[in-house]
Amino acid sequence: MTSDQTIDIVKHTRDCHRTLQRYYRDLKGRVASERVQLALDFLIAHEASMETALSQYETQVPHNIAQRWFKYSPNEELKRLLAEEDLPPDMSIEHLSAWVARLNDGLIQSYRQFEEASWPEPLREVMQRLVALEHEGRKRVVRALQEQVD
Questions:
Q1: Which sequence spans correspond to the domains of the chain?
Q2: Domain 4-149 annotated CATH 1.20.1260
Q3: What are phi and psi of 4, to 5 degrees?
Q4: Which residues are registered as beta bridge partners of 78?
Q5: What is the pLDDT of residues 15-58, one digit of tens each?
Q6: pLDDT beneath 70: ranges in the chain
Q7: Alpha-carbon separation of residue 49 from 24, 122, 133, 136 (angstroms)
Q8: b/e sequence 109-129, b meaning 16+ C-beta within 10 Å
Q9: What single string gives the DSSP state of each residue in 10-54?
Q10: Could you tell me which of 16, 113, 104, 13 has the C-alpha nearest to residue 70?
């Protein structure tokens, strides 16, 4: 069991997006479909944008809240989610879109658990902000990938 401070959770979230950038870049080199490669370009740019937003948010978290400890850490959640499915080189946009939605849903659920366990209110607000950032990112990604399907 590991423990993290609030700021560590924000940093882990940022690192998740950095990991996803690398994952999508690697996947792009293996897929056959040009449409899927274009979708992966979008995902790479999206993850870079999320990473930047979280880096900026790190500087806004009040010090007394940033130093609060959590009993558990979400650090391993992304690794688990990425290991659940090996994406094939001949995947379709639909397959990629469904997988990205499941991945984002898993991350959002993980952060919601931290939000629900957060106390006092300023700490809950930090976790709510993480959930909101992830939820907005999920909507943008799903909408963009759906447009490529249609």
A1: 4-149
A2: yes
A3: -140, 150
A4: none
A5: 888 888 998 999 899 888 888 898 899 999 998 998 898 888 88
A6: 1-3, 69-78, 85, 118-119, 149-150
A7: 14, 25, 11, 12
A8: ebbbebbeebeeeebbebbbb
A9: HHHHHHHHHHHHHHHHHHHTT---HHHHHHHHHHHHHHHHHHHHH
A10: 113
